[in-house]
Specification:
Blueprint: E1 2-3, H1 5-16, H2 24-31, E2 34-35, H3 45-53, H4 59-67, E3 72-77, E4 79-84, H5 88-94, H6 100-103, H7 107-116, H8 118-131, H9 157-166, E5 170-176, E6 179-184, H10 185-188, H11 191-194, H12 200-215, H13 232-244, E7 247-252, E8 261-264, H14 268-272, E9 286-288, H15 299-306, E10 327-332, E11 335-344, E12 353-360, H16 365-382
Parallel strand pairs: 1-7
Antiparallel strand pairs: 2-4, 3-4, 5-6, 7-8, 9-10, 10-11, 11-12
C-alpha cells in the first residue's frame, strides 16, 4: 500500500488527539503508555505530552492517577514508562517466559545478583514490610547493591530497590520532590489486578498492539527500544499478524523506497478518513511539542513525513548543539515549522519561561501571534507547582 506524505501526516495528527476532553489516564490508555524523562527545564517530557492533549491539564491530575487512584503504574514499555494499571498482569505473565531474559534482563545475571545481595535484599523486604513506603535514603543501614541499570551509577542503596522493583516484588508508592518511595506490591496494586491471569498466548499481541498505539505507523526496527527486537515471541507475532492481514505494509510516496512502515488493519478506517487538510480544529493552531512526543519520536518517520530533521539536544555535548539544550519542535496546523529552545528562570522571585532561541522554517503574522499565545499558556503551566 502506497500513501502520500500529506496523508500520512494527517493520519498521525488526527490520532494524536491534541486538545481533547480526555483525562490524563484516558490519554495514556489510548497510547498504551507514556515515556518518562526526568529532565525538568520547561516541564517534564511526559507532562508536556499531556499538556498538549488534555484540555486544562494540571500536573497534579497525573500524580493523582498514579499514586492516589492507582489507575497507572511505572515500568518498562516504551523505555521507562507510565502504564495503565490494567496492563500489569501482562508483565507478570511476561516475567515467566523464556523471552524475558532477552527483553529485560539475563535471568542468570539476576539470579547471581540475588545470591550476591541475598542478605540485604531480605533485610530490605523486611524493612519495607515493617515501615511502609521506603526511599533509598531510609536504608543507609543496609549494604549497597551493584547497579542494575547504567543510570544508577556504581554501587548504591537505590540499586537494591530498583532490583526488587524490576522483579515486581515492590512498586513505586509515590514521589516526593521526584524521590521514589517504594512499597510492597500487594499493598500498592489493587487485588483485582493482581488476581488477573494472562496466558502466554496473550502477551505478544498485547506488546505488539502497544507499539502501534504509540506510533501509528511502525518500522520493524522501531518495535522495541528496550531490546525486544531480540524477542522471538514478538517477531513471531508480528509475522503472524502480517500474514493474516491484521498488519499492512505501507510505503511513503516520495520517501526512501528501502524503508517499510506498517499500519494496523484496525486503523484503516481512521487512515481513510484523515485525508490532507482534514484534521478538525487545527486551523491557526500552534503546539510546542515535547521532545519525546510520540508524534516526533521516530526521527526517520518525522523526516520522511514532515520533512524536518530533529534531534533533541539535551543529551548532545554542548559544543555540538545547534538549537539549544531543550529544543522543542513547533507544530503549526499540519506542519512542523521549526524549533524553540526554552528554559524556566532559576532566579527566585522572578520566575518566568525564557526563550533562548527560535528557529523557524516559515514565518507569518499568524504564526507569530499563535506562538506568542502558546508561549503564554505554556509559561503558566511550566511555573505551576
Amino acid at each position: 500500500m502506497e500513501i502520500t506524505k500529506a496523508h500520512a501526516a494527517n493520519f498521525l495528527l488526527a490520532r494524536a488527539g491534541f486538545d481533547s476532553e480526555r483525562t490524563s489516564a484516558q490519554v495514556i490508555e489510548d497510547l498504551s503508555c507514556l515515556q518518562v524523562d526526568p529532565i525538568n527545564v520547561v516541564a517534564r517530557s511526559h507532562e508536556l505530552i499531556l499538556f498538549n492533549r488534555v484540555k486544562g491539564f494540571r500536573k497534579q491530575e497525573l500524580y493523582a492517577s498514579l499514586y492516589k487512584d492507582r489507575q497507572l503504574f511505572e515500568y518498562w514499555l516504551q523505555m521507562y514508562s507510565i502504564i495503565p494499571i490494567s496492563a500489569l498482569p501482562y508483565f507478570k505473565a511476561l516475567q515467566k517466559t523464556t523471552d524475558y531474559r532477552q527483553i529485560y534482563a539475563d535471568r542468570s545475571r539476576y539470579s547471581s545478583y540475588r545470591r550476591e545481595h541475598e542478605a540485604d535484599l531480605t533485610a530490605l523486604m523486611a524493612f519495607i514490610e515493617s515501615n511502609g513506603p521506603t526511599a533509598a535514603r531510609d536504608i543507609r543501614h543496609l549494604g549497597k547493591g551493584r547497579a542494575v541499570h547504567s543510570w544508577t551509577g556504581g554501587n548504591s542503596h537505590s540499586a537494591l530497590l530498583e532490583f526488587l522493583w524490576n522483579t515486581g516484588e515492590i512498586q513505586i508508592s509515590h514521589r516526593s520532590s521526584n524521590i521514589k518511595y517504594y512499597d510492597l506490591t500487594h499493598r500498592i496494586i489493587p487485588e483485582t489486578v493482581l488476581a488477573t491471569e494472562i496466558s502466554a498466548e496473550q502477551i505478544y499481541p498485547f506488546l505488539l498492539s502497544s507499539y502501534f498505539k504509540y506510533y501509528g505507523l511502525v518500522r520493524p526496527t522501531w518495535l522495541n527500544r528496550s531490546g525486544r527486537d531480540r524477542s522471538k515471541g514478538l517477531r513471531d507475532e508480528f509475522n503472524r499478524q502480517l500474514k493474516i492481514g491484521d498488519i499492512i505494509e505501507v510505503r511513503i510516496k516520495g520517501g526512501d523506497s528501502k524503508i517499510k512502515y506498517y499500519l494496523r488493519q484496525s486503523d484503516l478506517e481512521m487512515f481513510a478518513g484523515s485525508s490532507p487538510g482534514s484534521v478538525a480544529g487545527s486551523a491557526g493552531k500552534l503546539k510546542i511539542l515535547s521532545p519525546l512526543d510520540p508524534l516526533v519520536l521516530d526521527r526517520q518517520l518525522l523526516l520522511e513525513v514532515f520533512g524536518i530533521f530533529y534531534r533533541w539536544e539535551a543529551y548532545t555535548p554542548p559544543a555540538k548543539r545547534k538549537y539549544g539544550f531543550y529544543n522543542m519542535p513547533i507544530l503549526f496546523e499540519d506542519k512542523i515549522i521549526g524549533q524553540i529552545d526554552l528554559a524556566k528562570s532559576k532566579q527566585k522571585g522572578d520566575a518566568k519561561l525564557n526563550v533562548n532561541g527560535i528557529f523557524l522554517n516559515q514565518k507569518s503574522k499568524a504564526i507569530d501571534d499563535a506562538l506568542q499565545q502558546e508561549l503564554h499558556r505554556l509559561e503558566k503551566f511550566s511555573l505551576e507547582q
